């Protein structure tokens, strides 16, 4: 008991300090979204639709089980290896870490959603209300323990290349299914909620408030079983993934750039993190395009390849940060063509699979061939140019590969920085290929050369800018990776110097701008191009034919204007905070 209380207090202290600074806006955004979802769950419980409520709790359980896995290892505030020298027995260590796991914003949000059990119990009768109290506790423990066991199993799997590939396949498929949730909602609307949902562990709390007390006992036994499994996983030493032990073929190249290409291709084939990234992106693209086949609609299949390219660019954008302090090798050979070599290797790793998936999906769906033949080179060139450019301009300090320990997917301690860089990459790659795609929609086959020229220009021009930036600022980048911060002379005015209200307002502005730009603009354009009608919440598909494309274009323009306004506000606020007159003025 003392160990559990001590670890819970440690977690609370660390959480209190982590809510300050640059982590605060993203944390508050996630908390707001979580509380909105929890409020929707409570509203559903108040309406009395227990069948639908069981399906919603199944989604909460799925989020707890697979969410931390998809994020690359979940919460690592308190790691088991931190307490390796204390000599704690596995069951005591597991119990203490479990108590600490209940301290956090995610358990708080889930607890709010699980209060729907109490609401349903009160609507039932007094016995149902009394049974809801232990059901809430046991259900929350089930969510947390499922998360811990899933992360523990992931770490075991990631000690081999097969495990990394399997994790990429599973996580890519799950994320694609969540992004295409409208397909499953449509299936439920047609066929109803599957009967097996009522028998999942996520529904046992609901069954207990209706008088099935064996379900309550089953929850308790399942929690104890998961706790025992987690204790066994904690007992396994946290070691780095072993190497294959096979002799490595020497790199043979006649030029410095050829050596860089060979080195990068070897890294793509051997690094478990890159194995995971490329398989995750490929599986996400294929599953995203194939999921609407459940409704008999093949219209998304041609876009599986372009979506794979976008996701691969977003996953691999932190090229130099992922290499860690190995940048000093590049500094010693500044004329070795490092950027061009990485561009060629990236195209060799992504291009063939993207081409096969795009052509196969287009052939199965029967078109649209001009648009796909334009998008493929335009997106590949834009991604190959923007990935190294953003890697040197927006570098996020990473963990050296030999220091990743038992979790090779944890590439950086700055998860918010990586997330922001990923979203920026997705937006810029899509925007770079958008003009060629619009010409293809307008002029058909005549726009195919435009896609080729667009891709080549992005590859050459953006790569040139990246090479110039790397040559001019390589020492500063190395300093950032070694220390985790920019040199004082190069540091820009920091957003945390602003008042908390201003920071949150700017983050809300960026979040709201994404709604018209991506779902109502870019994604809706795909549906409108395929002639889809009345698709879930995409506004343009509900309008007349002559109003659809103007609505899509208007949404994209509105999103870009909102992004620009939020960015202008951010720069102006940063300039005001950096001004000595304003910074030193007394508070009002």
From TrEMBL:
Q: Which domain of life is it from?
A: Bacteria
Which keywords accompany this UniProt record? Membrane, Transmembrane, Transmembrane helix
Signal peptide start-end? none
The answer, when asked if Transmembrane helix is one of the entry's keywords, is yes
**UniProt entry tagged with the keyword Plastid:** no
Report TM segments.
26-46, 52-73, 94-120, 126-151, 163-188, 213-239, 276-297, 303-321, 345-365, 371-396, 417-440, 446-467, 507-529, 549-567
Q: What is this protein called?
A: ABC-2 type transport system permease protein
Question: Which species does this protein come from?
Answer: Micromonospora echinaurantiaca
